[in-house]
Amino acid sequence: MFEPVTIKDIAKALGLSTSTVSRALRDTHEISAATKKIVLAYAKEINYQPNPIALSLKERRSKSIGVVVSEVANSYFSQAINGIESIAYDRGYHVIISQTHESYDREVINVQHLASRSVDGLLVSLSSETTDISHLSSLHERGLPIVFFDRVADEIDTHKVIANNEKGAYQATEYLIKQGYQRIAHLTSSKHLSISIERLSGYEAALRDHNMEVSSSYIKHCLHGGMLPEETETAIKELMSLKEKPDAIFVAGDRLSTGCLSVFKKLSIAVPEEIAIAGFSNSDVLDLFNPSLTSVRQPAYDIGQLATEMLLQLIEAKYPVEEFEKKILATDLYVR
């Protein structure tokens, strides 16, 4: 059984009171420099580490933040998590990561578990199934700092960090139009997700600005955002069986974009001869794909960093924060 050294042990060894040892370790001015020196030297010698649980009870701080994402293996989220950790660890916070796998039930369980572990705050990107956010709003109302990134809940008044999804979608769709494609379909995640709404809006605006019709039969929603390969496959098959089948497709997500290429390969659909593709993707392996994929890349790392800075600002604020902002970062179109 691991038994950490306590302040009591140090006090006993040095023949001092526990309060004297405690003050010396906290470096308060009430203790003489000589006593401090003895206590600190001994603490170092026996490798004394303050108990983080005891500290957190005392300070009501656990120095840890919870992160809720759909999937760590998704290139976008793995890059965002790198950004989150780069700021958190610099500031002495631990990061606890949980995955929802696009499930609302799992999101609720993960959020409750993190809150019960007394994290100081949460960074949340909603699951594609989530429509009811009461599990988050109740914590928010009780004062737990929460910052949303990527997939945000408009109903909760707090900081949010997103990419310029609408503009990115517009640029990708316009790129396909300028390449001469006439019938451009759109494959996206669930209808209610903030990123789906923004990207659909950019797609529709690009079509309208080029006097092209927006057809509902060309818009396919995958409720699990590409996590279920059969969902992506069904959507592609439906598109390809249309009388006027699309000659290009704009895909609105990382997991969906790579999934889409796999389906085309499986169904022996030649890209770009039979259908061209452009999509949102932060995957670094896209250059290795043949055929490749023109992609909208989000500043995932920067989004992670900024969301963490905003969360720590809420956690460390001396007074309740009343003013919140939504930061929108620019995307890049990588033409391949």
TrEMBL record:
This is Transcriptional regulator, LacI family. SMART domains: HTH_LACI. One of its GO terms (molecular function) is DNA-binding transcription activator activity. Residues 5-59 form the HTH lacI-type domain. Gene3D superfamilies: 3.40.50.2300, lambda repressor-like DNA-binding domains. Keywords: DNA-binding, Transcription, Transcription regulation. Residues 6-49 form the HTH cro/C1-type domain. PROSITE patterns: HTH_CROC1 (PS50943), HTH_CRP_2 (PS51063), HTH_LACI_2 (PS50932), SIGMA54_1 (PS00717). It holds the Pfam family LacI. It comes from Pedobacter insulae. It comes from the Bacteria. Residues 1-44 form the HTH crp-type domain. InterPro entries: Cro/C1-type_HTH (IPR001387), HTH_CRP (IPR012318), HTH_LacI (IPR000843), Lambda_DNA-bd_dom_sf (IPR010982), Peripla_BP/Lac1_sug-bd_dom (IPR001761), Peripla_BP_I (IPR028082), RNA_pol_sigma_54 (IPR000394).
